[in-house]
Amino acid sequence: MSKYIKMGPKHECGGVKTDNDGKFHYFTSSAVGWACDDNLLKCIEKQKSHDLGRGKKKYSKSFNLFAVPGPSSTKYEIGFFQPDTEGVTYLGNIEY
């Protein structure tokens, strides 16, 4: 299991000031790890940072993007690299 993925009954992604009035936050995941943030661009940058690892080589070439109800401080389970809560919307797969 990746050190970035925290499986368990509840996990808090870490609240930051929202850019969408707290109605939802973004969650990204790849085979390497996951990230979440209220700001889409920050979330994507966090995910790319995980995917690049410690070196310049990419460990993952794409990730999935979700919209999750509530701010990023919302607690929910993470299963199979995706949020496990009601109201999650899959937005697509991002390749880079």
Quick synopsis:
Helices cover 14% and strands 36% of the residues. It has one helix and seven strands, in the order E-E-E-H-E-E-E-E.
Within the largest sheet, what's the order of strands?
Answer: 3-2-4-7
N- to C-terminal distance: 24 Å
- The total of beta strands comes to 7
Nearest-integer average pLDDT: 79
H/E series: EEEHEEEE
**Main beta sheet, described?**
4 strands, antiparallel
Helix content: 10-25%
Task: State the helix count.
Answer: 1
Low-confidence stretches: 1-12, 14-18
Structure classification? mainly beta
Shape: globular
Beta-strand proportion: 35-45%
What gyration radius follows from the Cα positions, in whole Å? Answer: 12 Å
- What count of domains describes the coordinates? 1
Describe the model.
With 96 residues, the protein is mainly beta. It has one domain. Helices cover 14% and strands 36% of the residues. It is built from one helix and seven strands, in the order βββαββββ. A four-stranded antiparallel beta sheet has the order 3-2-4-7, covered by helices on one side. A hairpin with a 2-residue loop joins strand 5 (75-79) and strand 6. It starts with 10 loop residues before the first strand and ends with a strand.
Topology summary:
Blueprint: E1 11-12, E2 24-29, E3 34-37, H1 40-52, E4 62-69, E5 75-79, E6 82-84, E7 89-95
Antiparallel strand pairs: 1-5, 2-3, 2-4, 4-7, 5-6
Could you name the key traits of this structure?
three-stranded antiparallel sheet, four-stranded antiparallel sheet, mainly beta, 96 residues, 36% strand
